[in-house]
Specification:
single chain; mainly beta; OB fold (Dihydrolipoamide Acetyltransferase, E2P); five-stranded mixed β-barrel; 2 helices; about 10% helix
Length: about 160
């Protein structure tokens, strides 16, 4: 039987990320995302619902997010669901949390507090790569962004998104 574990999110970062390092030196960061949903009731009343999601990034992606993402920044994330379980040290009870492990991302729009600049993007996998810089000008967007499926992350040359 086939299995699929794929998550696609577009939302705003809820707090400045903090990059930490494992004892073996791997970078890791968690970002909170707020995903808004607007809808209209049968009586014409407009409503908005917000879902908060935790996303974990590893390796070079964690470092890039730590360097360039601030609270309020719009971001596109692709990843997979992961169910964490642990014993609470204070109460001794079992705890659990469903989170997203980020596998690719794109920065959307202008940097908060910046001077514009359109879109920048970054994608890839967990393997760290040599940093390279490249200026990009994004084509006009008419629908939700989707990372390139044809080029490999190494061919894209997008470790530094600005």
């Amino acid at each position: 039987m086939a299995n699929v574990n794929k998550v696609i999110l577009i939302g705003n970062v809820t707090r400045d990320p903090e990059v930490k390092f494992t004892p073996k030196g791997s970078a890791v960061t968690d970002i909170g995302m707020a995903i808004n949903r607007s809808y209209t009731l049968d009586n014409g009343e407009k409503r908005e619902d917000v879902t908060f999601v935790e996303v974990t990034f590893w390796g070079r992606q964690a470092e890039t997010i730590g360097e360039h993402v601030k609270k309020g920044r719009s971001i596109y994330v692709e990843g997979r669901l992961h169910f964490d379980t642990w014993d609470d040290k204070q109460s001794g009870q079992k705890r659990s949390k469903l989170r997203v492990v980020g596998e690719n991302f794109q920065f959307l729009g202008a940097r908060p507090g910046g001077s514009g600049g359109g879109e920048s993007e970054h994608g890839g996998h967990y393997e760290p790569r040599e940093p390279r810089q490249q200026q990009r000008s994004a084509p006009p967007r008419q629908s939700a962004p989707a990372p390139s499926q044809s080029a490999s992350p190494a061919e894209e040359g997008d470790d530094i998104p600005f």
